[in-house]
């Protein structure tokens, strides 16, 4: 999860031994997200959901993107060998992630722009990751 200035609010990876590689992949994908947003232009403003779909595939991974109306970016990296995940499942996972993020934003003790430290959010992300693995 990244704010509109591309500052990371929340990053989680499984397995953790390649965490630095995933961080690099996610940060490089932010350029693709910005390109897609600018290419779509005003068409995105009219939509309620800003699912960007597959940003780019690599040999080992597929990178997907989603942007909220407030320009918060969600990026998901999935193993390419996982053929069970279809576009609808990825879209559903982003909606679930967006709903949980909205719940965090509604918390009066959360300052927008701060890193996300929430057990409920962690639990939701971990359960989504276990379903994918």
TrEMBL record:
Subcellular location: Cytoplasm, Perinuclear region; Endoplasmic reticulum; Golgi apparatus
Classification via Gene3D superfamilies: 3.30.450.70
CDD domains: TRAPPC2L (cd14854)
Pfam families: Sedlin_N
Coiled-coil stretches noted in the UniProt entry, renumbered to this chain: none
Keywords: Cytoplasm, Endoplasmic reticulum, ER-Golgi transport, Golgi apparatus, Transport
Record's keyword annotation contains Transport: yes
Descriptive protein name: Trafficking protein particle complex subunit 2-like protein
Species, as recorded: Sinosuthora webbiana
Gene for this chain: Trappc2l
